[in-house]
Amino acid sequence: MVSKHLKRLYLALTYIFLYAPIMFLIIFSFNSEKFSSKWGYFSLKWYSTLLSDDRILTALYYTVLVAIISSIISTIFGTITAIGIDKMKKGIGKKTILSVNNLPVLNPDIVTAVSLMTLFIFFKVPFGLITLIIAHVAFSVPYVILSVLPKLKQLPTDIVKASLDLGATPSYTMRKVILPQIKPGIMAGFLFAFTMSIDDFVISFFNTGSNVTNLSIEIYSMARRGISPEINALSTLMFITILILLFLANGKDLFKKERKNENY
Amino acid sequence: MKKKGTIAHYPYIIWSILFIVVPIFLVLYFSIIDSNGNLTASNYTKLFNSLYMLVFLNSIKLALISTAICLILGYPVAYIISKSRSKTRNILMLFLVIPMWMNFLLRTYAWMSILGKNGIINTIITTLGFPAVDIMYTDAAVILGMIYNFLPFMIIPIYTVLIKIDKDVIKAAGDLGANKLTVFKRIILPLSIPGVMSGITMVFMPAVSTFVISQLLGGGQFMLIGNLIESEFTTVGDWYFGSALSILMMIIILLSMAVLTRFDKDDVKGGGRLW
C-alpha cells in the first residue's frame, strides 16, 4: 500500500531530522581537523584535549555534585511538604500553597532565574555554590510535590485506618504503610529533580558565581567563542552515557515482552 | 483516619515565601523604581519605545511560527506512531525522547556547526558548484533551532491523547457509515484537541522566552525578549528596566496559559507535560 510507505517515509524523515545533528557531532568528534568543512583523518585528539581540560572536568564535577545534593534535598523536602499539604483541609490556605507552588512551574525559566538573582543581590548573598544549590532546590521542590501529591490522593484511607487499628504507631504506619505506597511518586520526583538539575542552564547561569560553573554554562561560553571540536567529543561521551543509562533502565521491558496493559 | 492537620508543610510555606513570593515582589519593586530608589513609571513607558516593541513582536512572531510548524509536522508523527503496534510505538517514543536527554545547549550547538560558514551544508552546496548560503544568524536559523528543540514537546502530548481514544468509538463511527476522513474530522481530531492545546503551550512558552537559541543561532544581541532581559541583567546592568521586561514576560506567559488551559480543564498537567 502506498500510504503505508508514505507514513514510514515521513516517520523516517522526522527521526533523521532529530538524530542527524547528534550523529554529525559524533562523526566529527573523530575528525583531526578543527572545521567540519574538511575531513583530515580519524583521530582521538579532541578526546584527549577534552580529558585534560581542567575547566571541563571541574564543571562536570560541579554539575554532578549540585544535581545529587539538590535532588536529594528537594525529594525529602518535597515529600514531607506533600504529606503536610495532603492533610490540610480544603480551603483557601491549601489553594494558595498549591498556586504559589505552581508559579515556578508555569513561569519561564528566565523569570525564575532573574527573580532569584534579584533576591540574592538584594540580601547581598555572595554568588557561588550555595546560591546555585538553593536555586536548584527552589525550582525542583515544586515538581517533587506535584509528583508525590497524586500518589497520596490515591492512597486508600482505610489502609491507614486498619494499620492504626491493628496497633501500629503513627510513625510505624508512615514508614511501613504510607511511604511504600507513595514510593513511585517519590522516585519520579527524584528523577525529575535530578535530570532537571543536570540539564539546567538558565537558572544556573544567573545564580552562580564566577568560581563555580557547570557543564551547561561551560558549553555556552565555549559555543559563544565559536566552534570547538572539544564540544563534539563531549557530546559523544554524554550521548553514549545517556544511551547506556536509558537502556539499562528500560531495555528489559521494551524488548522482552509486549506491554500487558494497553491503555496506560 | 480523620485528616488531622500536621505541621509538615510549614517549613515549605516559609521557604516558598522566601524563594518564590519575595523574589517576584522584588522584581516588581525594582520595575517601579529608578536607580536613585524613587518611584517611577519610566521603566514601563520605555517598553513602548518602538525599538523594544519590535523586539516583542519579533519574539512573538518567531514563537508563533515555530509553534505552527511544530504542530503541522508533529501531529502526523503522533498520529502515525499511535496507530502502530504497541511494541513498535514504545520503541518509537523512546527514540523520540532520547535526544531530549542530551544537553539542550549541545543540541543547539550542533546546528551551529551544521549551518555555519564552514559547516556541512555549505560544504555540500559549494562542492556542487553553488554559491554558499548564509543561514546562520538569521530568523530562519532561530526558527529551525526552536523546531528542532521543541518538536518532541508537541508530539508527546498529542500522542498521549491519541492512544487514549476509545477504539470502540472509532469502530462505531465506521459501522455507522463514516469514511476514514469523516472519522478523522468528526471524532479523532476533536478528541485530540486537549493534546494539541498542551502541545502548543509546551512549545510556545519555551520558544517565546528563550535566549539561548537566539543567542547562539541568531547571533544578534537584541533579537528576542529573552536576550533583552539577559543583557539588561548581565552586561548592561539596568535591572530596573530588566525587571519591567521580566514582569511583562510573566504577564504574557500567564495570560496565554490562562487562555490555553481553558481547553484542557480536566488535566492541566496531563498530556505528558512532565515527561
The fourth-level CATH homologous superfamily of chain B is MetI-like
- At CATH level 2, the architecture of chain B is Orthogonal Bundle
* Tally of structural domains of chain A: 2
Give a quick account of the main beta sheet of chain B: strands, pairing sense, barrel closure: none
Supply the CATH class of chain B.
Answer: Mainly Alpha
> What CATH architecture of the largest domain in chain A would you give?
Orthogonal Bundle
On the 0-100 scale, what is the average pLDDT of chain B?
86
Distance N to C terminus of chain B:
34 Å
Task: Indicate how many domains the architecture of chain B comprises.
Answer: 1
Strand fraction band of chain A? under 5%
- Which regions of chain B contain 5 or more consecutive residues with pLDDT less than 50? 266-275
Overview of this structure, please?
The complex is a heterodimer of chains A (264) and B (275). Chain A has 264 residues and is mainly α. Chain A has 2 domains: 18-52 and 215-242, no CATH class; 59-211, MetI-like (MetI-like fold), CATH 1.10.3720.10. Chain A is built from 11 helices and no strands. Chain A has helices at residues 2-28, 45-51, 54-87, 92-106, 109-122, 129-154, 157-165, 170-199, 202-207, 215-225, 229-255. In chain A, helix 3 (54-87) packs antiparallel against helix 8 (170-199) and helix 4 packs across helix 6. Chain A is globular and about 75 Å long. The relative contact order of chain A is 0.13. Chain B has a single domain, classed as MetI-like fold (Orthogonal Bundle), CATH 1.10.3720.10. Chain B has 275 residues and is mainly alpha-helical. Chain B is built from 13 helices and no strands. The two termini of chain B are 34 Å apart. The model of chain B is unreliable at 266-275 (pLDDT under 50). The radius of gyration of chain B is 23 Å and the shape is globular.
